[in-house]
Amino acid sequence: MKLPTTFGELKASGYRTRSVKDELRANLIKKIRAGEKLFPGIVGYDDTVIPQLVNAILARHNIILLGLRGQAKSRIIRQLTELLDESIPVITGSEVNDDPFEPISAFGRQTLEMHGDDTPINWVGRDSRFVEKLATPDVTVADIIGDVDPIKAAKGGHLLSDELTIHYGLLPRANRGIFAINELPDLAGKIQVGLFNIMQEGDVQIKGYPVRLLLDVLLLFSANPEDYTARGKIISPLKDRIGTEIMTHYPKELQTAIQITRQEAWTNRDGNNVEIPEFIHEIVEQIAFEARDDNHIDKHSGVSQRMPITVMESVVSNAERRSLLTEEAPIVPRIADVYAAIPSMTGKMELEYEGEQLGANRIARDLIKRAAGEVFEGYFVGIDFNRTVEWFDAGNKLLLADTASAEECRGLLESVPELLGTATIPFDFKSSEIAKVVAACEFALEGLYAENKISRNEEGGYAAVTKARKDRRGMIYDDLTETGKYS
Question: For residues 237 and 408, what is the distance between their CA atoms, to the nearest angstrom?
Fold first, then answer.
């Protein structure tokens, strides 16, 4: 269907303008009634964040999302554009998406007076009606609201006080759309005042000249809960204007976290067959869970959900590298690959003072050990590894390099009594799936290491553990060495 191109055609079509909040509300109701998924790709918030968000939109509220980094705040904000109409009519040439029925700018009013029903109309898509700004201390009133443009004044022969001389900022350009500010507390107080004033009263002073703009905007904000009260401050009138405050959170269940990482991590390597054992998925996610509870890591900063995503990508990459070197397929990650992914962990942890003394690398190794121990318990409860432990206690050692092929590793593992048979009990791996069998055995060895029944060095070698360290699970830092020798 051909869209109207003039104001007269628009009126004849029966089109009626509605506010952006009414528009979002109506489209949300339509999606709910149709049984559509409201926020595709947002996992783990079905019973917490999403119902609160729905309530806020139904109530036509401005919204702030409070949460630590990596909790999908920006993704949620951007997905709200899907609740906007596909397109809306604006007066052609308007910088502020002037509604032909109720223009708010001097340009829009003058154009309508001059051309009447022949006023040209453009249609603006939903993506163009979303404006986002990261708040930083150097953001100015000109950035957000606008500034007087002397060149416009000179070319048009206008006084500086004339509204036609204004170069509009981001907020007016978001008129009839969504305006989002990330990290709101970092915005200077005077900018917050201007932001509140133009939303509450519809006016603002630019370079001493009063300007009145009755904007129609949904305001969305995001902030870190700590920043909300500590590093920055949100002025009281602006907080009062925000109708709904929603707390985001990290995944509460391991399976939810695994689902997020499966969705986000790039593990499909150019069509190559990548088969990730489930216990590798669980260990990678458990690392993040352990990190969030670790006293050496700053809880105020949080451990982003991006960490397990990048770790999983690095795990697969190390397994892919081994596959290229050994020319074996499929690509099957194992514990050695998780250790190889430590560089993807260390940059995503803000350490407390004691953590700084230990070092990020050592803490990352500890997290892997503890995570493997937690997952190991779930798979091998009640399974006896005494013969395996006795073999190590007899002075035997085993080195499984991360570049060693599955065949080579299986040859080494066959020398460990009962390990091949015992380690595969929880799994339905076929004997021909050598890479998976090796991964399971290495997982079992890592679990025994986590329980301090054997030891492990930094090169991936397993050996007996000294008697003094047996039954001391949890005291991980003592048996991690920087020299690579067996503890």
Answer: 68
CB 219 within 8 A of CB 242: yes
- Joined together, the tokens standing for residue 312 give 């999983």
What DSSP line would sit under 106-118, residue for residue?
Answer: HHHHHHHHHHGGG
Could you give the CA distance from residue 485 to residue 37 in angstroms, rounded to a whole number? 54
Q: Please, what is the Cα angle at 207 between 204 and 210, to 5 degrees?
A: 35
Angle among Cα 403, 407, 413 to the nearest 5 degrees reads 90
Query: Token pair for residue 68?
Result: 């630590």
Main-chain dihedrals φ then ψ at residue 427, nearest 5 degrees: -115, 160
State the CATH architecture for 7-247: 3-Layer(aba) Sandwich (3.40)
Phi, psi (rounded to 5 degrees) for 167 = -100, 110
Nearest to 22 by CA among 52, 65, 57: 57
One-letter amino acid of 122 = N
**Residue ranges of domains in the chain:** 7-247, 254-479
Is-contact 176 88, C-beta < 8 A? yes
Kindly write down the DSSP assignment for every residue of 382-406, as one continuous string. Answer: T---HHHHHHHHTT--EE--TTS-H
pLDDT of 484 > 90? The answer is no
Asked if residue 22 lies in contact with residue 60, where contact means CB atoms within 8 angstroms, the answer is yes
Largest Cα–Cα separation, the chain: 97
pLDDT tens for each residue of 394-446: 999 999 999 999 999 999 999 999 999 999 999 988 888 999 999 999 999 99
Rounded CA separation 254/341 (Å): 20
Residue of 129, 17, 152 lying closest to 82 (CA atoms) = 129
3-state DSSP percent of the chain in helix, strand and coil, to 5: 50, 15, 40
Spell 103-139 as b/e; 16+ CB within 10 A means b: bbbebbeebbeeeeeebebeebebebbbbbbebeeeb
In angstroms, the CA 127 to CA 79 distance is 10
Q: What percent of the chain has pLDDT over 90?
A: 68
If you search the block for the tokens 């060149």, which residue do you land on? 151
In the predicted model, what is the mean pLDDT of the chain? 88
- Kindly report the backbone phi and psi dihedral angles of residue 111, in degrees, each rounded to the nearest multiple of 5, phi listed first: -60, -40
First to last CA, the chain: 75
Number of neighbouring beta carbons within 10 Å of residue 346 = 15
pLDDT higher for 204 or 433? 433
Element of type H or E holding 148: strand 146-148
